[in-house]
Amino acid sequence: MTNPPTKDFFASPALSLSLAGIFRDAGATAAAPTASASMEVEEGDEGSGGGGGSGSKKDDTVEISSENSGPARSRSEDDLLDHDDDENDADKSKKKKRKKYHRHTADQIREMEALFKESPHPDEKQRQQLSKQLGLAPRQVKFWFQNRRTQIKAIQERHENSLLKQELDKLRDENKAMRETINKACCLNCGMATTAKDGSITAEEQQLRIENAKLKAEVEKLRTVIGKYPPGASTTGSCSSGNDQENRSSLDFYTGIFGLEKSRIMEIVNQAMEELQKMATAGEPLWVRSVETGREILNYDEYVKELSVESSSNGRPKRSIEASRETGVVFLDLPRLVQSFMDANQWKEMFPCIISKAATVDVICHGEAPNKNGAVQLMFAELQMLTPLVPTREVYFVRYCKQLSAEQWAIVDVSIDKVEENIDASLVKCRKRPSGCIIQDTTNGHCKVIWVEHLECQKNTVHTLYRTIVRSGLAFGARHWMATLQHQCERLVFFMATNVPTKDSTGVATLAGRKSILKLAQRMTWSFCHSIGASSYHTWNKVSTKTGEDIRVSSRKNLNDPGEPHGVIVCAVSSVWLPVSPTLLFDFLRDESRRSEWDIMSNGGPVQSIANLAKGKDRGNAVTIQAMKSKENSMWVLQDSCTNAFESMVVFAHVDVTGIQSVITGCDSSNMAILPSGFSILPDGLESRPLVISSRHEKSNDTEGGSLLTVAFQILTNSSPTAKLTMESVESVNTIVSCTLRNIKTSLQCEDG
């Protein structure tokens, strides 16, 4: 009969021999074979160890497993021998009987271990074959495998328990710290306690902390790939202020991994700076303005000739060249503008619709504090469009900041071949040729910016809807960057303004209330941009619908982000082309008086304006609070409308009435969970196609002026983060998207578009 193995039995291998005590009776002639977790006892065939006992008496033989093999005897064995000696002292005339221990040989253990790795559960045939091969009884082989399986299981459980205990201790510490912070926090405007983690931490800072945690994980993965830092090593050195130790670390990082000396990197960025200045200031024949579109086009032959650039592709796959230049004036002081480019988080915050990820991988040169003159840093960015239909672009580049004169700065980005190849050659699908901007300080806090964007991208498949706007260079070109920069700077000026006209801030009585509402709307729009792109943060699945729309669905679980509802969130997105101008479409979607025409949640009821806050010179840049009244209840909606020279957005979310009323009075909005939905509107890019004067001129009005509309809705399907996604919830959000698209097409009379 075999005794079942126990986990506690493996706590100490030395305890395994203690079972020998159950066979102390020296007169036992036929001890029953017994198996424990690491030992078996069987009748032996050899004579007693005393040098010749009676033939009728047989010694017990103990087989020791590989875990207990070795020349030294355990304490249990010594106790057993001492017990036998005492019995022999009482009756010296009687032939003493000792148990003889036989250990598995190293060869036997090796063979059994080899089979165990291939098959932890050998069948009867395998055990028979192995027993013959090793000269062991089949049951010895059977017991050894049982013991081995049990021991490994015990080791695994102890390891898992240890990890769980560490995680539990960590969560307890975090919970304690959060409770202490909550108890101390209060709103500076109303004096009431808040549920935010820190009363002084803004919603934007909380969102940045969440993003930082994700970026740190990616940076650690990057460092692991290139072999400089092991997993778990600190990744904060590149983000802190400079000192000798950090400078040495950064230099070692580059010379040791990329094979590039710091002097070589500085030579490359200085050459890139010179090229950027030429690209930014030169006119014809380097840049030729298109008569049809008014855009500047790079004369590539002149570029290669004038700047002595090698035109060979160096064996790379066939790539397309995208070059564009745009000039504009932004309302922001020069030091602050420069700082926003050199800090990865501020840079991502400045361009939320273009940048889905950004990180400073390491700092090569910290520059002169505090203005960062001469700073050089390796950066990573994932560039997106606000649709899952266009793949993101991942680009590694070195950014160099330099003061050209007392009133002029330049920031240049350039990809370095050897850097990219050593990071991960499979990811290098987009490279930056010398790109960036020249910033000229003018007057009254304004800056003139000349933006040059010069990319070399590997050709890939793009959805037919976006093929024109992507391949023409508009999607990621200088015009897009400049328009976004101007819009964000204008938004910041209106946010900081203290002398706001009454007509630009209706429905909100205090300046504190205005700022709280604008901050909440900004966080809502950031979340929307982060949720609908093709970033690796999301996994999009195409679902089939009865009406034939191309809808992509993704889901995520929010565990601890205070800015969103906790639980399972489903996002459904669909992009379509409509034969209406972007301006007309934007005005229709943001107009509260026409909301009932497309919003199925309004049930056709009237919409009342509660507040309207301007955040830009264009009347379309505004934050509004709308009340949709029905027979059952009144539902409030926060809406953020944004428009610039390139794209427009209408982002909205249903909000708790009591919560939004407290925000209107000036209370902190960072503790309000909000789940945005909305629309992104882009020009279709058809105006960038070359026009032929003869026949195409007559048809030009028919092919221009269309819009690319992306509709996105997010819903909370379950408040428990551990719940599973159901098909019913997916069908529900798909229905919302389909009905909204159908209502928009009907209202704009473009059902067949």
Automatic annotation (TrEMBL):
Stretches with biased composition (Low complexity): 28-38
Residue stretches of biased makeup (Acidic residues): 79-89
Region called Disordered, residue ranges: 28-107
Keywords from the UniProt entry: Coiled coil, DNA-binding, Homeobox, Nucleus, Transcription, Transcription regulation
Pfam families, per the entry: Homeodomain (PF00046), PDF2_C (PF25797), START (PF01852)
Biased composition (Basic residues): 93-103
Keyword Phosphoprotein: no
Homeobox domain ranges (all copies): 95-155
One Gene Ontology term of the molecular function aspect: DNA binding
Alphabetical list of Gene3D superfamilies matching this protein: 3.30.530.20, Homeodomain-like
UniProt cross-references to InterPro entries, sorted A to Z: HD, HD-Zip_IV, HD-Zip_IV_C, Homeobox_CS, Homeodomain-like_sf, START-like_dom_sf, START_lipid-bd_dom
Residue ranges for the DNA-binding region feature of this UniProt entry: 97-156
First-listed, main subcellular location of the protein, grouped into a coarse class: nucleus
Domain (START): residue spans on this chain: 258-494
Biological process annotations from GO: cell differentiation
Residue ranges that the Swiss-Prot or TrEMBL entry lists as coiled coil: 154-225
GO cellular component terms, semicolon-separated: nucleus
Compartment(s): Nucleus
Family (UniProt): Belongs to the HD-ZIP homeobox family. Class IV subfamily.
PANTHER family the UniProt entry points to: HOMEOBOX-LEUCINE ZIPPER PROTEIN GLABRA 2, HOMEOBOX-LEUCINE ZIPPER PROTEIN MERISTEM L1
Protein name as it appears in the record: Homeobox-leucine zipper protein GLABRA 2
Organism of derivation: Gossypium hirsutum (Upland cotton)
The encoding gene: LOC107917909
